[in-house]
Amino acid sequence: MITLKDVMTWVNGELLTPEAPLELECPKVFASDLMSDVLTSAEPGSFLLTGLANSHVISTCSVADVAAVVFVQGKRPDAAVVEQARGKGLPLVATKLPMFEACSRISALFGEKTHGR
Amino acid sequence: MAGDAVFRQEFPIKGGDFAKAGAVACRIKDLLKELGIDTRVVRRAAIASYEAEMNVIMYAWEGRVKLAVSPGTIRITVDDKGPGIPDIDLAMTEGYSTATPEMRELGFGAGMGLPNIKKNSDTFRIDSDVGQGTRLEIIIHTDGHQP
C-alpha cells in the first residue's frame, strides 16, 4: 500500500494541512491543471497532482471524491484555500518539483511497491 | 414525479460569483450523503450539479437549482436567466466551448461540462431560449444504475 507519507517523502513534499492522516492510502494518481478533466476522468480516492492552486481545486476535489492534492512547481494555495481544504478534511501537500518530475517519482514509487522490493 | 418527492431544497446561484463556486454542489452532496444514498450515486449527482453550477456562474446572470429526492430517484433542475444557447447540439459536443481565457485559467471552460452532466445522468434534458435562459433537468436513479 502506498500512503500519503510515502508520496510526501518521494516528492520532498511539505504537508500544508498538519492534521492529515499520513497513513491515508493512495490507490491512484491523476495529474492535471484542468479541473474539467478531474471531473470527467479522475477516479474516486485518487490523489491529484496539479499546478493550479485556487479554491476551485478544493471544490472540485470535494465533489469528485479526490482524496488528497499535491501542488507541484512550488505553487502554494493561499491561507483561505488551505482553510477550505481543512474544513473538508482534504490533505494538501506542496512540492517544488515540476509536474513531470513529481509524476516520475510517484510512478517509480508505484513501481517499487508493486514489484515488492 | 416531483410531487412524490420526500425531500426538496432550492439553491440560488449568482452569475459571475466565482468565489462561491461549488457551494451548491457541495451542499447537495452533503444532503444526499445524509439521506444515506450510495456514495457512487452521490458522486454522480455532485459532479453533475457542480458542472451545472459552474455553467450558471460562467455564463448566466442568475440561476436556481432545485433538488428533489424521492424513493429511487434524484431530480436536479437548473433554471437560469442568461444569454441561452443558440445551438444545443454544438454545445453538447465535447471540446466545444465559448469560455473566456479567465475562465480557462481557473481550470474550467474545456467544453466538457454539458457532456459530463449527461454522462453522470440517467436522464438528461436541456432546453434553451436565446436571450432568456437555459433549463436543465438531471435525473439519477439511486439504485446504483451506472451510465
Describe the structure.
The complex is a heterodimer of chains A (117) and B (147). With 117 residues, chain A is an alpha/beta fold. Chain A has helices spanning 4-10, 35-41, 55-64, 79-87, 99-114; strands at 14-15, 29-31, 47-50, 68-71, 92-94. Chain A has a five-stranded mixed beta sheet, covered by helices on one side. Chain B has one domain: Histidine kinase-like ATPase, C-terminal domain (Heat Shock Protein 90, 2-Layer Sandwich). Chain B contains five helices and five strands. Chain B has helices spanning 23-34, 39-59, 88-91, 101-105, 113-119, and strands spanning 7-14, 62-70, 73-81, 123-129, 133-141. In chain B, strands 1-2-3-5-4 form a five-stranded antiparallel beta sheet, with helices on one face. The longest helix of chain B has 21 residues, at 39-59. Chain B is globular, with a radius of gyration of 14 Å. The model of chain B has no long low-confidence stretch (mean pLDDT 93). The interface between A and B is medium-sized, with 21 and 26 residues.
Short characterization:
The complex is a heterodimer of chains A (117) and B (147). Chain A is α/β, with parallel strands linked by helices.
Q: What is the distance, rounded to the nearest whole angstrom, between the alpha carbons of the first and last residues of chain A?
A: 12 Å
Low-confidence sequence ranges of chain B: none
Contiguous uncertain segments of 5+ residues of chain A:
none
Spatial strand order of the main sheet of chain B? 1-2-3-5-4
Helix content of chain A: 40-55%
Interface with most residues:
A-B, 21 and 26 residues
Examine the coordinates and then state which fold CATH places here, giving the name of the CATH topology of chain B: Heat Shock Protein 90
Q: How many domains comprise the coordinates of chain A?
A: 1
Spatial order of strands in the largest sheet of chain A? 1-5-4-3-2
What is the 3D shape of chain B? globular
CATH superfamily of chain B: Histidine kinase-like ATPase, C-terminal domain
> Main β-sheet of chain B, in a few words?
5 strands, antiparallel
What is the overall number of helices of chain A?
Answer: 5
By helix and strand content of chain A, what is the structural category? Answer: alpha/beta
Whole-angstrom Rg of chain B: 14 Å
Q: CATH superfamily assignment of chain A? A: HprK N-terminal domain-like
Percentage of residues in DSSP E strands of chain A = 5-15%
Straight-line N-to-C gap of chain B:
21 Å
Number of strands of chain A: 5
CATH topology of chain A: Udp-n-acetylmuramoylalanyl-d-glutamate--2,6- Diaminopimelate Ligase, Chain: A, domain 1
